[in-house]
């Protein structure tokens, strides 16, 4: 009984969250050296991979007829993933596919796993000119 009264007395105040330009979501120290850079990947190559991943998500989203909000959410998920994990250790295409799948569910416009896989396979075939 004593525990129940203590937890009911403890008050949590979440109304004091302040977002400003100085209060960024990703700290500068995480932006300066990403896990990919620590694994030896050049900054320019990492930037190119990030751009390519976002273009891949955008193309797949258009083919799946997803709303732009879902594609943007997938790109944010993709970018944030690679600020904590390395391009060296995780396949960019698989992460892009997973990001799009997750974002479609978050934005309540889900697509079947099979459709997402088929679209990414189609994009890969077109890029390889097959």
From TrEMBL:
The keyword Zinc does not apply. One of its GO terms (molecular function) is cyclin-dependent protein serine/threonine kinase regulator activity. Pfam families: Cyclin_N. Residues 34-119 form the Cyclin N-terminal domain. Keywords: Cyclin. It comes from the Eukaryota. One of its GO terms (biological process) is regulation of transcription by RNA polymerase II. The keyword Coiled coil does not apply. This is Cyclin-l1. It comes from Plakobranchus ocellatus.
């Amino acid at each position: 009984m004593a525990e129940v009264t203590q937890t009911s007395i403890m008050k949590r105040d979440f109304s004091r969250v302040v977002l400003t330009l100085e209060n960024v979501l990703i700290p500068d120290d995480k932006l300066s050296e990403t896990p990919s850079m620590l694994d030896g990947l050049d900054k320019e190559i990492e930037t190119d991979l990030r751009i390519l991943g976002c273009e891949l998500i955008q193309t797949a989203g258009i083919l799946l007829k997803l709303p732009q909000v879902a594609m943007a959410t997938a790109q944010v998920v993709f970018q944030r993933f690679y600020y904590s994990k390395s391009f060296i250790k995780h396949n960019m295409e698989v992460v892009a596919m997973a990001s799009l799948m997750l974002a479609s569910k978050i934005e309540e416009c889900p697509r079947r796993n099979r459709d997402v896989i088929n679209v990414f396979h189609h994009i890969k075939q077109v890029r390889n000119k097959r």
